[in-house]
Amino acid sequence: MWKASPRCVSGAAVSKLLQCTLSDKPCNDYDFCEWLWTETKDTRMKALNTNFVQGVKDGMLHPTSFGAYIVQDAVYCQKAQESLSVAAKRDKMGPLKIFLEHESTDYKSYYEDLFDKWHIRDGKAIELGKECQEYVDIVADVASNDDAYYMLVALIPCGRLWPWLGQQLIAAKVYI
């Protein structure tokens, strides 16, 4: 069964997913998210030490770099919303489908708000950075070709890494 993990899947998401399982056998003592988190420590530390995060931390991030990140994030949210919608349409009715539909709606709100604030008319006209595009392509491939449960796994990097990075900035006494 899904276990609450404040650094992986929110309590609200867990409550929606209580009846969903990746296996026919209940797994009460194994937290897949914790295992993934532990196994990706090197990648997490690389993200923490990027010029972007360190620039935010030190108050030295150039405004153009910040703007470029926000524009890329807006387009990422648009593409994630599209992938969530595809995965939801492919899944049968149940808690997972409802969860994916809800997340798709949330991502649509995120990107529409960012598009409005940053005067973006067409996200397709914006070229993503190499790493972001690779991630978007993986998520889209999972949405189109794999069981919908794998969307949860595909989105863990975004859903868990960014809050953790924020916690690291707060711990360093950086208030953004």
Structure commentary:
The protein has helices at 11-17, 32-39, 41-48, 51-58, 63-90, 95-117, 130-145, 149-171. It has 176 residues and is an all-alpha fold. The protein has a domain at 58-176: Heme oxygenase-like (Heme Oxygenase, Chain A, Up-down Bundle), CATH 1.20.910. Helix 5 (63-90) packs antiparallel against helix 6 (95-117), helix 5 (63-90) runs parallel beside helix 7 and helix 7 packs antiparallel against helix 8 (149-171).
Features:
176 residues; mainly alpha; Heme Oxygenase, Chain A; 8 helices; disordered N terminus
In short:
The protein has 176 residues and is an all-alpha fold. Helices cover 69% and strands 0% of the residues.
Structural class: mainly alpha
CATH superfamily of the domain at 58-176: Heme oxygenase-like
Radius of gyration: 17 Å
- Reading the helices and strands in chain order gives HHHHHHHH
Mean pLDDT across every amino acid position? 82
Quick one: CATH class of the domain at 58-176? Mainly Alpha
Low-confidence stretches: 1-27
Biggest beta-sheet profile: none
| CATH architectural type of the domain at 58-176 | Up-down Bundle
According to CATH, the fold-level topology of the domain at 58-176 is Heme Oxygenase, Chain A
Strand content: under 5%
Distance between the termini: 36 Å
The percent range for helix content is: 55-70%
Please report the total strand number as a whole number: 0
Multimeric status of the protein: single chain
Shape: globular
Figure out the total of helices. Answer: 8
InterPro entries: Haem_Oase-like_multi-hlx, Thiaminase-2/PQQC, Thiamine_Salvage_TenA
Protein name: Thiaminase-2/PQQC domain-containing protein
Organism: Mytilus galloprovincialis (Mediterranean mussel)
Domain Thiaminase-2/PQQC: 51-165
